[in-house]
Amino acid sequence: MSVILCTAGYDHTIRFWEALSGICSRTIQHPDSQVNRLCISPDKRFLAAAGHHTVKLFDIKSTNPNPLLTFEGHTGNITGVAFHCEGKWMVTCSEDSTVKIWDTRSGNIQREYNHGYPVNDVVIHPNQGEIISCDRNGSVRVWDLAENNCSHQLIPEEDVPVSSVTVASDGSLLVAANNNGYVFVWRLVQTLERTQLVPVTRFPAHTEYIARVILSPDVKKLATCSADHTAKIWAVPLPDADDVPDVPAPAPKLTNGDTNGSGHMIQQTLIPAPLSLPTTTAMTNGTTANSAGEGPGSGGPESKPFPLEATLTGHQRWVWDCAFSADSAYLVTACSDHYARLWELSSQQVIRQYNGHHRGAVCVALNDYSEAR
């Protein structure tokens, strides 16, 4: 199976599609709950389906409709799932305020991190040593697996839920999106001691809630999908010299007793104004001070957005999820209007529509890499 494409949602089914013909080749029932997220393992062997309290692991090549393994331990909707590059472990996040790491062979929980607030999304850094998650209290946290603690807490906009996060395949960028329709971008800079996060830009991408943000495999495009019934494609500019410090200095940790809930100190980068870009962020005695131009309401400049390449219109309701093809030339979207669509980005046209769900399609997973990763 060179191309694996599947969708799921509120009709309690998972559907596999022949990407080019649009034919549904297989349907798996998921009677326990709706399916919130899907993830295909890098080797194309397994599909993880995140539901209300459990994640079910299915064998993609088998006709067995039953899951190989059920991961139990969350007490709320599971909102995110991602596989380790070799499939040895899996990370999930949930409305129960936790991020959990699972052994994919045994189904046991290996680690657990507590946000203190419902968690909306989680991704794995390409270095496989950090995971990044976001929550409804408006924070993005970077978890260092070697140190077993939270190394950074980012607050893009005070008290505005962060709905989605994505990290570049080359580890160069971290992007987050929030409920106000804003996108926030940081450059990730590796130092001897830790990953440093340098603010790059922020910009309004949609007029309503952003459900998903994702960087393309070639890191040249950024896709956002929203409650405003559209998905948008943004060009990722090449980094300016100012974006990457020549000799990034290790940032101090907070000294005011702020912890991640398990006794570990965290570094906090606070970016309070949604329309102004800090050029420096200094920490002194546990406080965060910003040096930046003020937002438009105060007469200062707004930060430069990524150039908009395309607005994909045609869906009739919320566009919940999206996935890039391996060559970054196509995008699949899933929508509450029951349909998934395959878009050719060069022409901005729908080249295939996938019909079959009886209720909203809210998640999609695509793996069309020529070799298992």
Number of helices: 0
Radius of gyration: 20 Å
Q: What general outline do the C-alpha atoms trace?
A: globular
In helices, the fraction of residues equals under 10%
Q: What is the straight-line distance between the termini?
A: 14 Å
In the CATH hierarchy, what is the architecture at level 2? Answer: 7 Propeller
CATH topology: Methylamine Dehydrogenase, Chain H
Strand percentage: over 45%
- Give the biggest beta sheet: 5 strands, mixed
> What's the total number of strands?
31
Oligomer: single chain
- The CATH superfamily is YVTN repeat-like/Quinoprotein amine dehydrogenase
What would you say this structure looks like, in words?
The chain has 373 residues and is an all-beta fold. The protein has one domain: Methylamine Dehydrogenase, Chain H. Helix content is 0%, strand content 49%. It has no helices and 31 strands. Strands 12-13-14-15-23 form a 5-stranded mixed sheet, with no helix packed on it. Strands 3-2-1-31 form a 4-stranded antiparallel sheet, with no helix packed on it. Strands 4-5-6-7 form a 4-stranded antiparallel sheet, with no helix packed on it. The two termini are 14 Å apart.
Structure keywords:
Quinoprotein_ADH-like_sf, MLST8, 373 residues, Methylamine Dehydrogenase, Chain H, WD40/YVTN_repeat-like_dom_sf, mainly beta, repeat
Question: Which helices and strands occur, and which strands form pairs?
Answer:
Elements: E1 4-9, E2 13-17, E3 24-29, E4 37-40, E5 46-50, E6 54-59, E7 69-72, E8 78-83, E9 89-94, E10 98-103, E11 109-114, E12 119-124, E13 130-135, E14 140-144, E15 149-155, E16 162-167, E17 173-178, E18 182-190, E19 195-204, E20 210-215, E21 221-226, E22 231-235, E23 267-270, E24 278-284, E25 287-292, E26 308-312, E27 319-324, E28 330-335, E29 340-344, E30 349-354, E31 361-367
Parallel strand pairs: 15-23
Antiparallel strand pairs: 1-2, 1-31, 2-3, 4-5, 5-6, 6-7, 8-9, 9-10, 10-11, 12-13, 13-14, 14-15, 16-17, 17-18, 18-19, 20-21, 21-22, 22-26, 24-25, 27-28, 28-29, 29-30
InterPro entries: MLST8, Quinoprotein_ADH-like_sf, WD40/YVTN_repeat-like_dom_sf, WD40_PAC1, WD40_repeat_CS, WD40_rpt
Biased composition (Low complexity): 281-293
Pfam families: WD40 (PF00400)
